[in-house]
Specification:
Elements (H helix, E strand, L loop, with lengths): L2 E2 L2 E2 L5 E3 L8 H9 L4 E8 H6 L2 H5 L10 E6 L3 H13 L4 E6 L4 H4 L11 H14 L4 E6 L9 H10 L4 E5 L14 H7 L8 E4 L5 H11 L3 E4 L9 H11 L8 H19 L1 H8 L3 H4 L7 H7 L5 H20 L5 H5 L3 H10 L5 H8 L23
Parallel strand pairs: 3-4, 3-10, 4-5, 5-6, 6-7, 7-8, 8-9, 9-10
Antiparallel strand pairs: 1-2
The protein binds flavin mononucleotide.
The site of flavin mononucleotide (FMN) has 21 residues, from β4.
Length: 388
């Protein structure tokens, strides 16, 4: 059983990674619905929190159903980070997480995020000050080191544990690597298997399938995995991994109905939290991800990312459902087989079609029988396909 302070995370928890502009409350809602065991806010600037900047403040919004949840902070000044941690604690998360991994110039060049990997004594002091300042558990998310020559995570992990952090998440890349190349898990395993280490160690980097999660669990013995990019547009990954770990079997991929429904929920939550204008605007970055892999989706996407109201987007989503539902239904039927469908087979298929989709099915089937007409369709009692 993995525990962070008093927070019980069960066996091998799956963590949703903090991701700027992605892991906001609407996205976290759909990830929680789909099995994320523990989640984090996007990183929040300590300077912004102290200035009481609206954007930073808004990121402190957390909801009861999200628990357990951590608020992640970044910054380069020890005093400001301490102050920000006290502010964040008032939002009553389950823990405070410190970001020592962000590689982007705007952060690292200001001495924050991964920059602390170049100054381990300062990282340790900053962490210690925060641990002392708050009652909540403090955790850290960081990388292997600054570059290839300074992969000092084994030593860093010991030092951070010694000053009282409650868990450590390691992204298996250096700052220099940014997001390039495959994540290296050997050093994550070395930290986890260091007999001095007692706190939970979570591995992060490139976990994008149930098989990969199982491999990382077995090969490196980590206490759980954190998932970032693979969850974007695919929150089902959490339940898929859980199911695979429990049974050894893979769940079927989400259906088009599930994709559309999830997208609708995400859009609704986005509007509820951000208001109609920003909610619709910021949702635009998600559509392509939700419908990745669908042929000829571009036209729908183009409309979804330009239409201004929720009703407009919902109407396009309804079209998407109709178009791809029918396509999916017959994806295994060759064009030849379909054109040769006998009415009797048509009736059989129609009877198997869920009630709600029968009209769509018939509308689609009609042109496949150029010599025949479907005379009547009474959805409720009579599902027979009649030819004349
Ligand atoms: C769009 C995006 C935003 C990110 N923002 C943050 C962040 O705010 N805090 C953080 O610690 N890491 C952030 N990361 C890094 C991720 O948390 C994670 O460490 C990284 O994506 C590797 O995991 P993955 O291979 O599962 O995506 C971000 C990554 C992405 C792609």
């Amino acid at each position: 059983m993995v525990k962070i302070g008093n927070v019980n995370l069960g066996d091998f928890p799956l963590l949703l990674a903090p991701m700027e502009d992605v892991s906001d409350p609407p996205f976290r809602f759909v990830c929680k619905q789909n099995g994320a065991d523990m989640m984090y806010t996007e990183f929040i600037s300590s300077e912004g929190l102290i200035r009481d900047a609206a954007k930073s403040r808004m990121k402190l919004d957390i909801f009861e159903y999200e628990r357990p949840i951590g608020i992640q902070l970044f910054g380069g000044e020890i005093d400001h980070m301490r102050e920000a941690a006290i502010i964040a604690e008032q939002a009553q998360p389950d823990l405070i997480d410190i970001n020592y991994g962000c590689p982007v110039k705007a952060v690292a060049c200001k001495g924050a995020g991964a920059a602390l990997l170049q100054d381990i004594p300062k990282m340790v002091s900053m962490t210690e000050e925060i641990v002392k300042a708050v009652k909540l558990p403090v955790t850290v998310k960081t990388r292997l080191g600054w570059d290839d020559k300074t992969k000092n995570i084994v030593d860093v992990a010991e030092r951070l544990q010694d000053i009282g952090i409650s868990a450590l998440t390691i992204h298996g890349r250096t700052r220099k690597q940014m997001y390039k190349g495959p994540a290296e898990w050997d050093l994550i395993g070395a930290v986890k298997n260091n007999p001095r280490i007692k706190i939970p160690i979570f591995g992060n980097g490139d976990v994008d399938s149930p098989e990969k999660a199982l491999e990382m669990k077995n090969r490196f013995g980590v206490d759980g995995v954190m998932i970032g990019r693979a969850s974007i547009g695919y929150p089902w990954i959490f339940n898929e991994i859980k199911h695979f770990l429990a049974t050894g079997e893979k769940l079927a991929a989400p259906t088009i109905e599930q994709r559309v429904e999830n997208c609708r929920i995400h859009l609704r939550k986005s509007i509820e939290w951000k208001g109609p204008k920003l909610g619709i605007f910021e949702m635009r970055r998600h559509y392509a991800n939700y419908f990745k892999g669908l042929d000829h989706f571009k036209d729908y996407r183009m409309r979804m990312v330009t239409l201004p109201t929720e009703e407009d987007v919902l109407a396009v989503l309804a079209e998407v459902l109709e178009r791809y539902l029918v396509a999916n239904f017959f994806q295994k039927q060759s064009a030849f087989e379909i054109s040769c469908l006998e009415p009797a087979l048509g009736v059989k298929l129609l009877n198997k079609t869920p009630f709600f989709y029968k009209p769509i099915f018939v509308k689609w089937l009609l042109p496949k029988f150029p010599g025949r007409k479907i005379r009547k369709f009474e959805a409720k009692n009579d599902t027979r396909l009649r030819s004349c």
